[in-house]
Amino acid sequence: MVIAGIIQRNRRMLFSVAIAGLVAGISGCTTTDKTTTGSISPAVAATATSASGDFDQMNEQQLMQASTSLGSRYQANPKDKVTAMKFAAVLRMTNRSDQALAVMRSLAIAYPQDRDVLAAYGKALASAGEFEAALDALRRAQTPEYPDWKLLSAQGAILDQLGKESEARDLYRQALQINPNEASILSNLGMSYVLSGDLASAENYMRQAVKAPGSDSRVRQNLALVVGLQGRFDEAETIANQELSPQQAQANVKYLRTVLAQQNSWTMLKDKDKAKPKS
Fold first, then answer.
1. Are residues 84 and 188 in the same domain?
2. What SUPFAM superfamilies would the database entry show (predicted)?
3. Which of 86, 120, 147 is where one domain is finished?
4. Would you say 51 and 124 are in contact if contact means Cβ atoms under 8 Å apart?
């Protein structure tokens, strides 16, 4: 199947596109969060959630100002856990993953048993592409008798990056047992099926994620991606238009078409889409 081959050759690119909210995210200042296969950015621990949540709605200028302020505070006291974790979060969001990792590596040395620190360290490792080390940190942050669904989902996303979809989906399903109908987990599960080329299953889970409590714009953009990957470009643009500007929605579809242009696949899908009977 042509589309499955394209997805396999572009799995890392598609992963990045999806979790960045398509072009709307890529064209901004934020970087991708590789501890989620979907678009919601669930931090992998309570403190980490608070740290990253402070910056989610900031524009590029505001993020740079926060980075400068937090950097000064961090230099004054590198062992201040809250400041260091917030500084690392804003560094990741401004595409400085290596610096964020350095901050979290130092903090992990200072707090080797702290679950919040280990979880955030794992997130920083994943953002820097050090997936095996990230998995180790997240597993050490986990408490087997009281498993954290956020950590399970984050581990699953990293396993997806490593091409271990079956193991990833086992973890997503464990996470759903703890927190049923959680949008971020369903989105991760949907994108896991995208990465293996099963677009029908991907769309099923993504539509569940869109309807679930906590769903956000980025999850809906992932649904647009899944629909577009099946050649239904008009429908994909309609979904994207619900929350993006027309220019952003068109840019997303244009980017997706560029991906599918390899080996004439865009032409094949376009012809297939035109051949479908109108309902």
1. no
2. TPR-like
3. 147
4. no
Residue 102 C-alpha from the chain's centroid: 21
Q: Could you give the CA distance from residue 17 to residue 100 in angstroms, rounded to a whole number? A: 21
Q: Provide the domain limits for residue 116.
A: 45-147
pLDDT at 76 over 80: yes
pTM of the model: 0.73
Tell me: do 115 and 211 sit in the same domain: no
User: pLDDT tens digits for 157-199?
Assistant: 999 888 899 999 999 999 999 999 999 999 999 999 988 889 9
Residue at 258 is within a domain: yes
C-alpha span between 216 and 41 (Å, rounded): 10
Residues 52 and 22 in one domain: no
